[in-house]
Amino acid sequence: MKTGFTLIELLVVIVIIAVLAALLLPVLRGAKADAQQSACMNNLRQINLGVRMYCDDARDTTPNTKYDASITNAPWIGYKELMKHYVGLHGASSPRDKIFSCPADTFYYDWGRGLVSASHHDQALFDYSSYTFNGMNLFTLPTNIIVAPHARPPVQPGIGGLALSSILHPARTVMVAESPAFYPYSWHEPKPYQPGGVQPRGIALFNDAKDVVGFVDGHVAFVNIYWGNIVTNGGFMSCFYDPPPGYDYQWSAN
After folding, report:
1. DSSP 144-167
2. Would you give the end-to-end CA distance of the chain in angstroms?
3. pLDDT at residue 78 above 80?
4. How many CB atoms within 10 Å of residue 217?
5. Residues 22-27: what's their mean pLDDT?
């Protein structure tokens, strides 16, 4: 005589499957995160090399895109147009430029709109790139962007328009990094809104955000980004000041 599963046996099987799924899901998520981080690091290695090749042909000078009314010509974005043919891209930028796409780039923060559920790489606004050049020294902040005078650095650090040979610590100085490193927040290990410092409601900036960074000497690392507060160093954006001792990067060339 054939018999089917009893209700208790069926419930036991369901519980076992649920337990196995609960155990496996974090492993799968971790494997996915590791794969995204690895892909991002490989992208930045190639982009860093492309920027260095551009510098070699520009008499040792880093990209020097002057800011104008077009946001895509901002120094931190316009570098792509100057060097992209060194990584095999020709013609107008587009979402097909996969080397400029971090797989974890699925959201960003806008100072007016807060959280935007879209990627940098899919938008012309960012020249279809997940990565930003360390060229804030070529940009002067508008006078109305920060309220507190002491939060405005007279000159932002950066390496735009400088000779590579003049950079004193190439193994510590940022060349190109994931865009969140400049704020900072993290695509790889995001966190909710953190109180303190200067950030409009809905923008979740936080200290020690983990981001992929490419350095002047060519190496790439997954590092903690320092974010201060308005009292100590004008914590409006992390790229406005070098971190304190203990961090593995700097924005300035000296």
Report:
1. TS-SSGGGS-SS----TT-BGGG-
2. 85
3. yes
4. 15
5. 66
Spatial CB neighbours of 254, under 8 Å, sequence gap ≥ 6: 168
Q: How many CB atoms lie within 10 A of CB 107?
A: 16
Contact 130, 142 (CB under 8 A): no
For position 148, what pLDDT does the model report? 47
- Sorted by sequence, the CB contacts under 8 Å of residue 54 that are 6+ apart come out as 63, 82, 83, 86
Highest mean pLDDT pick, 32-41, 115-124, 227-236? 115-124
Residue 62: closest CA among 200, 158, 194, 202: 158
Find, among 185, 194, 197, the residue nearest to 146 by Cα. 197
Structure tokens at 188: 């790889």
Query: Per the confidence metrics, is the pTM higher than 0.90?
Result: no
pLDDT the model gives residue 28 = 54
Percent of the chain with pLDDT over 70: 79
Nearest to 213 by CA among 34, 35, 49, 48: 48
The pairs formed by 95-100 with CB atoms below 8 angstroms and a separation of 24 or more are 95/121, 95/122, 95/128, 97/121, 97/128, 97/129, 99/43, 99/46, 99/47, 100/43, 100/47, 100/128, 100/129, 100/130, 100/131
Q: Nearest CA to 155 among 140, 173, 174?
A: 140
Q: What angle do CA 74, 38, 203 make, to 5 degrees?
A: 45
Query: What are the percentages of helix, strand and coil residues in the chain, rounded to 5?
Result: 35, 10, 50
